[in-house]
Amino acid sequence: MMQVPLCREKMRNMKRKLVALISAVVFVIAGCGKNGETVTMKEGDTATQATDKSAAKPVALEVVTTFAGNDGNSENYRKFCHVWQNETGNTIIDRSSLTDETFKTRVVNDFATGSEPDVLFFFIGADANSFIEADMVVSLDEIWEVYPDFASNLDVERIPTSMVDGKIYAIPVNGYWEAMFVNTTVLEAAGVEMPDDDYRWEQFLADCEQIKNAGYIPIAAALGNIPHYWWEYAIFNHTTPETHGTIPGSVEDQIGQSWVAAMEDIKFLYEAGYFPYNTDTATDDETFSMFLNGEAAFLIDGSWRVGSIVQNCQTDPLNPATLDEEQLNQFSVTYVPGTDTRKATDMIGGMSMGYYITRSAWEDPDTRAAAISFVSYMTSDDVVPSFVQHTTHALKNMTAIETENYNSLQVTAIDMLSRCTSLTGAVQDIFQGECRESAFDDMPKIVTGRISAEDAVREGLERYQAEQ
Q: Domain residues for 274?
C-alpha cells in the first residue's frame, strides 16, 4: 500500500493557498484554446448542473486529464471546460498532458507526495490500485450517500470496478475497442475479398496465404515490441465473452490450456511467414508504416489508431481540412476473425479511463461541490456524445450520432460497433507485472521455439499467483 507522507495535510493547505492566488489569472486565460485562440462553442452548449449542490463560492479546481496535445478530444475538452467555467463561476487549473508511461508515473508520484489534483481523468485498472488502496480517491458508493443522483444517466453495469475492492471509482466518458484494420489496396492486389461479419479463422489463414503468395505481408505486427493485440485476441479465440477475463489458476486447467493454444496459434502464424520478416525486432511504428504504405494487409489495433491513419492521409497532420479522402478510402476496419467459441462480432473493448474525485477535494465542502458539478457536466448526456465519436460509452440514452460530421473511416467504425454482439474487457489489464515477461514480453522466444508455449504460460501464471 502507498505510504502517505505525514506532511500531506500541510502540503494540501499550501496548494490550496496557491490555487486561490492564481485563480484570477486562470479565469482570464480559461477561454483560450491552443496557441491563445478563443475556443468557439456550438449554439446550445450549456453547463446544466446535474445536482443542486453547487459550490457555495467560486473554486479554482485543479484537474489532470489526458486531453492534451494532438489527442482527438483535446479541443472538445477545452470547449466544455470553458462552458462550465462561464456558467458556474468556477475556474479550472488544467495540468493535462498526453498519456504515456511517464504520465502514469507522474500521477502516481503526485499522490505519493500529497500533490494530487482535485479531479483526475485516469486509467481504470491496475494503474490506479496504489491510490485506491491508500483511500485517496472517493468511490461511487460514497458519493451516492451525499449526491444520490450523481451519474444516474450512466449504466453502471458497463463501468469496470476496481480490482482492489470491487467498487466503482472512475466515471467514464468514452471507451475503446480493438479490431482489425485493413489496407484494401493490398487485398485488391492479392485478389482477396474484404472480410465480413462472419469472418472465420480458417478463411483468414487462407487469405493470409494468398496475400503472401502475391508478394505482400499479411499481418503488420511487431511481436517483439507490441504483442498486445495478437496476444489478447489469440486467447479470446479460445475462450468466450463470459470466461475471457478469468486468469487461469494453473497452466493445466481449461483456461490455462486455452492460453497455451493461443500462443501456439501465434507461433503458427509466425512459422507460416504471415508476419513481417523482422517482427521479433521491429518497432510498432515500423510495422504500422508497412500497413500505411501498402506493404501489409491486416493490422489489429485499438480505436485510437483511427486518428493516426486519418492524420497520415492529411497533407498537414494537424489540419483536418487537408484530408485526402481518396487516400483514406483505401483503409477500412472490421472484426478480428472468429472461431467456434468466439464470434467475429464479439469484440475486445469497454471503458478504459474515467474521472476520479480525490479524497483531498472531497474533504473540502466547496471543492467537493465544484468537483461533483464538473464531473457531472463532463459525463452528461449533452457532453458525452461529442467525446464518443467512433468509440464506446456508458450512457443509458445515447443520442444518434450525426455521421455526416465524421470521415469515412470513423463512419465505418461506428457501423462496425453498431453490429457488435459483445464487448469484453482486455485480460492483459489484469495480468500485469513480472508475470508478463515469459508469456507476453518474450513472444519472440515463443514463436521461435526457444521456449515452449506451455512453459511460457506456466512461468507467467506462477509469477502472477506469487504476486497476489
A: 176-349+411-467
Q: Which of 154, 140, 163, 123 is nearest to 393 (CA)?
A: 154
Amino acid at 159: I
Separation between Cα atoms, residue 328 and residue 284, nearest integer Å: 21
Same domain (yes/no): 366, 444: no
Q: What is the DSSP string of 333-379?
A: EEPPPB-SSS-TTEEEEE--EEEEEBHHHHTSHHHHHHHHHHHHHHT
State whether the Cα torsion 16-18-21-24 is positive or negative: negative
Q: In angstroms, how far is CA 232 from the centroid of its own chain?
A: 15
17 close to 82: Cβ distance less than 8 angstroms: no
Do 60 and 108 share a domain, yes or no? Answer: yes
Same domain membership, residue 369 and residue 299: no
Question: In this predicted model, what pLDDT tens digit does every residue of 181-196 receive, in sequence order?
Answer: 999 999 999 999 999 9
Kind of pairing, strands 331-334 and 176-183? antiparallel
Which pTM was predicted?
Answer: 0.79
Check which CATH number belongs to the domain holding 115 and give it.
3.40.190.10
Q: How many domains does the chain contain in total?
A: 2
